[in-house]
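Q: My labmate handed me this sequence with no annotations at all. I'd like to see what the chain might look like in three dimensions before we decide whether it's worth expressing. Could you predict it?
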Amino acid sequence: MSRLRPGRDDSPDRLYTLTGGRSRTGSTAFDVVTLVVAESDPVPGMQSEHAAILRMCRFPTAVVEVAAGLGLPVSITRILLADLHDTGRISARHPRPTTSYRLPDHDILEQVLVGLRNL
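A: Here is what I predict for the chain of 119 residues:
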């Protein structure tokens, strides 16, 4: 049994229509933690989900938060975000790998461990 939300049609037909039948984002890849920022305001005649994304992303917002706010699967949200990104209406900041992070020196960790044992 599926849980339907009042006023929402989450059927596969609706989701197919939202994305124009696409199942991939093309060249733009969005991680769930990618931060999205609107670069413009919604315009009349724009798809309602696109307009909602632009309103939601006035400040940096993670892809997963956008999906939750829209009440749509992340996969569908990524396609909608790619549409907006391709037209320059949003910008995305992808998370950076933490390659510069170094573990603390082994001797320091050993001293901490000895100190904890002495407590």
